[in-house]
Amino acid sequence: MQQSGGGNLVEERGHRQADDAADVGDPLLEMLRQCGVILKVDDFGTGPSSLSYLQHCPVDVLKIDQSFVRDILPTSTDAPLVRAVIALGKGLGCRVVAEGVETRHQLKFLRDEMCDEGQGYHFSPAVDADAFGRLLSMAPFAVPPAG
């Protein structure tokens, strides 16, 4: 569990952990959510996963694995999968985050598909807490353009 910049606690689970929680109907997750903990499913779409945990676990954020974002083109097989995950997340009332956004083309596609957030080198390489604080203090702070 980690603390977000806004002071909220965030629990980020991979598929195996989420599947285990769904199998037992983990009441702890619902209790944590009621206490303000944000529940995220990391690397969605990879590994041995089942959609059933999305029915049984209170998920707030669905993160699309970077392997689907990496080669995204309107005509690629990844594009319909990313569209479907975004629609699934939105239909469940989740925020949808795309991991591994590295190019303007990827960002434009994700914006056009109404993905809520992106993470990746297009925005910034990984930085430590001090460097992140310096980035936030720079004015103005802006997201790079998609087009």
Describe this structure in words.
With 147 residues, the chain is an alpha/beta fold. It has one domain: EAL domain (TIM Barrel, Alpha-Beta Barrel). It contains seven helices and six strands, in the order ββααβαβααβαβα. The chain has helices at residues 15-24, 27-34, 52-56, 66-69, 78-91, 104-112, 129-137, and strands spanning 2-3, 9-13, 38-44, 61-64, 95-98, 117-118. Strands 1-2-3-4-5-6 form a six-stranded mixed β-sheet. α3 links the parallel β3 (38-44) and β4 (61-64).
Integer average pLDDT: 76
Total strands: 6
Helix content: 40-55%
Q: Write down the overall geometry.
A: flat
- How many domains is the backbone divided into? 1
CATH homologous superfamily caption: EAL domain
- Reading off the top of the CATH hierarchy, the class is best stated as Alpha Beta
Beta-strand content estimate: 15-25%
What composes the largest sheet? Answer: 6 strands, mixed
